[in-house]
Amino acid sequence: MDGATIDQAMMRHALVLAKRGLGRTWPNPTVGAVIWQIEGVQPIIVGRGFTQPGGRPHAETQAIAVAGEAARGASIAVTLEPCAHHGKTPPCAEAIVAAGIVRVVSALEDPDPRVKGGGHAILRNADLDVSIGVLAEEARAVNLGFLSKILDHRPLVTLKLAQTADGFAGVMGQQLMVSSSVSKQRVHLARAAHDAIMVGVGTVLADNPDLTCRLPGMMPFSPVRVVLDTHLATPIGCRLVETCDTVPTWIVTGPDTPNEKIDAFRKTGVIIERAALGKDGRIDIRDALKVLASRGLTRILSEGGPMLAEALARADVIDSAEIYTSPERLNREGIAALRPGLQAALGDASRFEVSHKVTSGRDTVVHYSRRG
Ligand code: AOF
Ligand code: ZN
Predict the structure, then answer these.
(1) Which ligand 1 atom is at minimum distance from the Cα of 62?
(2) pLDDT (0 to 100) of residue 87
(3) Which of 157, 329, 342, 367 has the smallest set of CB atoms within 10 Å of its CB?
(4) Cβ contacts of residue 96 below 8 Å, gap of 6+?
């Protein structure tokens, strides 16, 4: 293996490590780090790490702690520029220098104003050999939520929607099981990889859902539950409120909701935020996402129904979409899953591409990702 091939292989490994933290490190990014020595022509990995739940410790200090003395004279691959600021611990860039590492392979500059090239500068000023941009595209995809939070002031949005073979999400006033149990498990796994699940109040009123990750042993991976609720119509006795001490529940409400009503919810432990209203008198999606980003969220899974999906499409904030289609037809009038704005967005090849299709039990899942 030549040097460039080794660098890429180590970065690929670091990216796999980084992905373990998805949904668990907000408000921080999830970063992976791999430290290796060369023996003859072979790379020998001496340390690995990834950002820990809650965002600290950072990946590099984890990997350095594993490597110990073996870090001296070694190389490190990091999926994001090592930090340059003094937080609860000294900057990772300084920790890398202090550990005696001599080469740094970095995927991307960190756009956080406290870092923004400062980490790479610390390394170069200490005479380390620094290569930037290795597997940058892949690293951008893993870091998309964090990049979006810093650069666009909104979290990444993944849309999940399920429909029957003839395109219906359900029937008004009736609960309809559209997806197979395998698909439900898939969705629960997706929940764990996001910081929050978002629904509209209509879903709360219709289904009284739990919105937790109920895969064996994965309940602690349940993300924050966010409800968009213009007039605070969420019943105070619903499951999301009842269980908010174990899994956080946040409600984004409009400017006209009376303070007394808000206080009653706050007393139960629910976090309430306000957002502006759009022209249609409902919560403005972009403003709600801005509020959620300012609270630290980087990755949101929208599991609301067709109305919320349509609002997200019209606000042009969908980064990827997972459309589950069951083999059964409804064969009567129901609620259309893909409303006109969403249909137009997903069908527009200049805006979205089908990244892959998978079979999920009896269902088919089409994954769309935003271009550019
Ligand atoms: C790294 N390695 O694993 C992560 C980094 O609040 P703090 O002090 O933990 O700093 C958060 C910032 O650190 C975050 O905005 C991002 O710029 C960087 N995250 N940096 O070197 C890591 N998670
Ligand atoms: Zn750091």
Answers:
(1) 3
(2) 82
(3) 329
(4) 60, 64, 76, 82, 104, 123, 128
Q: How confident is the model over 236-251, as pLDDT tens digits? A: 999 999 999 999 999 9
d(CA 74, CA 231): 58
Active-site annotation, residues: 60
Q: What's the gap in Å between 336 CA and the centre of ligand 1?
A: 42
Say whether domain 3-146 belongs to CATH 3.40.140.10. yes
State the distance from the centre of ligand 2 to the C-alpha of 80, rounded, in angstroms. 9
- Fold agreement (3-146, 154-370): no
Architecture of domain 154-370: 3-Layer(aba) Sandwich (3.40)
Q: Which two tokens stand for residue 272?
A: 């309430």
Token duo for residue 50: 């990834």
Q: List the strands of the sheet with 42-50, edge to edge.
A: 42-50, 32-39, 75-78, 103-106, 129-132
Hey, how many other C-beta atoms are within 10 angstroms of the C-beta on 304? 24
Residue spans of the domains in the chain: they are: 3-146, 154-370
